[in-house]
Amino acid sequence: VSLLIVYHSQSGGTTALARAAYVGAQSAADTLPIHLLAAPAVDAAAVRAARGLIIASPENFGYMAGLMKDFFDRCFYPCETFMAGKPYATLVCAGNDGTGATHAIDRIITGWRMKKAHPGVIARRIGGAAGSARGELDPADIASAGEVGALIAAGLEAGIF
Ligand SMILES: Cc1cc2nc3c(=O)[nH]c(=O)nc-3n(C[C@H](O)[C@H](O)[C@H](O)COP(=O)(O)O)c2cc1C
Predict the structure, then answer these.
(1) Is 14 near ligand 1, meaning CB less than 6 Å away?
(2) Is the CB of 58 within 6 Å of ligand 1?
(3) DSSP assignment, residue 40?
């Protein structure tokens, strides 16, 4: 029973968002365990045991990263009857867009009938070429990721979800 943050990152941007969410959640939680796990390391049992999820992915080719899709491919049906009503939020790191990955994750999680606890954070790299891993993350986006972690952790501890 925990808050589970599932992430994948190739060039570090999503890692920064996921870590910020982890730190934010820890600062807001007294007793709730917070787990930060790379997508390939997450199995259905870990997802079922979670009381809330944060999904953090890069946008690649207008969609979530392949390893995040693999996570859903492996875990969707084994978790189908365990997720309804639990809160979730998305964190997406992108070169110039991020909406495709966000919508793709939302669409799959609709099938789990989870509760969207936050509109989601999209962190677009600043100053890089479109679609590249160059450019900096806006500190405000990293702060927003921290707030998402804090929001869900505090809400779970307070029993408001
Ligand atoms: C193969 C590939 C495809 C990408 N496709 C998109 C895209 O469709 N839209 C976008 O906004 N950024 C795109 N990007 C840029 C990444 O989303 C961006 O570099 C992001 O920071 C990657 O996250 P990461 O640092 O966690 O790996 C792409 C990057 C790669 C490597």
Answers:
(1) yes
(2) yes
(3) G
Cα-Cα-Cα-Cα dihedral sign, residues 134, 139, 140, 145: positive
Contacts of 139 (CB under 8 A, 6+ apart): none
Q: Which atom of ligand 1 is nearest to the CA of 59?
A: 17
Q: Count CB-CB contacts under 10 A for residue 38.
A: 14
15 DSSP assignment: H
Q: HEC profile for 80-145?
A: CCCCCCCEEEEEEEECCCCHHHHHHHHHHHHCCCCEECCCCEEEECECCCCCCCCCECCHHHHHHH
Q: How many A from CA of 38 to the centre of ligand 1?
A: 17
HSE, CB side, 13 Å, CA atoms: give it for residue 48.
Answer: 12
CB 131 less than 6 A from any atom of ligand 1: yes
Stated pTM of the model = 0.97
Q: Atom 23 (ligand 1): residue with closest C-alpha?
A: 58
Q: Per-block average pLDDT, block size 10, for the chain (161 residues)?
A: 95 97 97 97 98 98 98 98 98 96 98 98 86 82 98 96 88
